[in-house]
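Teaching note: in complex prediction, the entire set of molecules is handled at once rather than each chain in isolation. The prompt given to students was simply: 'Predict the structure of this complex.' The entities are:
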Amino acid sequence: MQKEIKHTFYFTQNPKEIWDYLTKPELMELWLMPSDFQPVPGHHFRFTNPNNSFVVCEVLEVKPFTDLSYVWKNDWAVTKTPYTSKVSWTLTPIEGGTELLLIHSGFEMFKDLTAHNNGWMFLCNKLGSLLKEPAK
Amino acid sequence: MQQIREPFKRTCKMTTHSLDAFQVIADQSRRQMLMMLSKDSMTINAIAENFDMSRPAVSKHVKILYNAGFISITDIGRERHCVLNQDGFDELQNFINYFDKFWANKLGKLQSLLNNKLKN
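The expected output is the structure of the full assembly:
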């Protein structure tokens, strides 16, 4: 089972310019969602989904032009299906521009469950052999 | 005789409105049950021995896991054996896939935004 989401994108702009699009609400809104983000660790903020629900966030790490991460969870006050996760951005200057790496990970509630993907075949076989055993 | 049965229709009085995969695993006890079952199939009695809760409470959790497709239950003799089932986990995978597409879409948007900026 896939445990995290990874995307790498390349831009011809320098990291500083990309950084602005990750950290300035008026620019973030153009491609992501409206928010009251501030690049300050510990800052609580929310993205507003098109359906007016919120993504509830807290800034974790800010290393200007290099690293940005925040908690990404749904609105536990209203949802019946709470989850939490982490979004990390890493900017790396490369020749002719910037490499932008996104990792969306740490879906905490089932982190422990995803480690056991390989057990299923074994368990299915086990069930099969259990079913073949004569009933006591 | 063994049979796959519809479990607990009469034995469990507590209502368990169908919960989705996330509600199901939001509960610590149920996560623990799945962890235990990921190592081996277990009877409900064997599961109950690992928890400091009443047998009906354990049955309720087992029923929730069953209803959401995380486990299947087989009667072997007098025992009910619980075994992990893929369906519940698939729903979690769908959730991750949703965000995978979400970000691919948003980043594509950012990319065309910045590409257009270059032209102007």
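Point out the following to students. Confidence is low (pLDDT under 50) at residues 111-131 of chain A. Helices of chain A lie at 15-23, 25-31, 111-114, 119-132.
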